[in-house]
Amino acid sequence: MKTITPILAFYFLVLFPTIHLVFSPNKIIYELWGTLYFALALFLVLVLKRVSLEQLGFNNIWKALAIGFLLGIIPLISLPLLDIWLIKSGLSQSELFKGAGLRSPEEIKFDMSLSGNIFIVTIGTFLDQVFVVGLVINNLLKKKKTGESIIFGSLLYSFIHLKISLSNLFLGMISTGLLRTTGSIITPIMVNLGFAIAGILIIFNYPRLIFILVFLK
Predict the structure, then answer these.
(1) Residues 90, 201, 156, 180, CA torsion sign
(2) Are 51 and 1 in contact, with CB atoms under 8 Å apart?
(3) φ, ψ dihedrals at 124, nearest 5°
(4) Could you tell me the sign of the dihedral formed by the alpha carbons of 76, 80, 81, 83, in that order?
(5) How far apart are CA 154 and CA 170, in angstroms?
(6) Residue 27: which pLDDT band, with cuts at 50, 70 and 90?
(7) Are 170 and 47 a contacting pair, CB within 8 Å?
(8) Would you say the C-alpha torsion 118, 66, 209, 156 has a positive or negative sign?
(9) What sign does the CA torsion over 51, 188, 157, 115 have?
(10) Which alpha helices (H) appear in the chain, and where do they start and end?
(11) How many other CB atoms are found less than 10 A from the CB of residue 129?
């Protein structure tokens, strides 16, 4: 708690207003400031030995990897199946989906390549999960019961991301629940990577499914 409080205080009281008041015209800093801060904070707490890798949730590595991989591929294999279903059922020609396949990534401000976007998203997701779930939620809620942790974890997840939304509440619940049930941060990392990559693939390969992004972002 003594370690987390100043980290969060600086994040909310100093960094957040400074970025929005001073650096909002700078697209790179404005979009990546959170990820950069998460990386710096994690580096410092590890170097200064305020927390250990085990306290961040790096436990049961092989078991967590296996479970995370199996759960993480679900959103990925769901995309082609859902896309095929939309085509076969004729729904792809409805007003909701008609013309969606013609959308280009540039239209939705995805001006990087598919591989570039996946690289940034995977690194960002890893740091996000380790900082928010492994460092903050895992330590602040470690004495609470699983059910309480999932509820409060979803709220904390949204609060730290400065966006109370259905998707953030859902991802917060999933991440906290997986952390508590598996005892490892690796499982929620893998699952969130699956959701993050699925979101990128929708933009580049399955634009008909663009409506799903409301649940993945």
Answers:
(1) positive
(2) no
(3) -65, -40
(4) positive
(5) 7
(6) confident
(7) no
(8) negative
(9) positive
(10) 4-9, 16-22, 27-47, 61-89, 114-128, 138-140, 146-160, 166-182, 186-204, 213-216
(11) 30
pLDDT band at 123 (very low <50, low <70, confident <90, very high): very high
Of 37, 39, 41, 63, which is closest to residue 50 (Cα–Cα)? 41
* DSSP-derived secondary structure for 119-183: HHHHHHHHHHIIIIIIIIIHHHSTTS-HHHHHHHHHHHHHHHTT---HHHHHHHHHHHHHHHHHS
- Per-residue pLDDT of 156-200, as tens digits, reads 999 998 888 888 899 999 999 999 999 999 999 999 999 999 988
∠ Cα 29 34 37 (to 5°): 95
Helix axes 166-182, 146-160, angle to 10 degrees: 140
In which residue are the tokens 């992004």 written? Answer: 213
Burial of 19 (0-12, 13-18, 19+ CB in 10 A): middle
pTM above 0.85, yes or no: yes
Residue with tokens 């999933």: 174
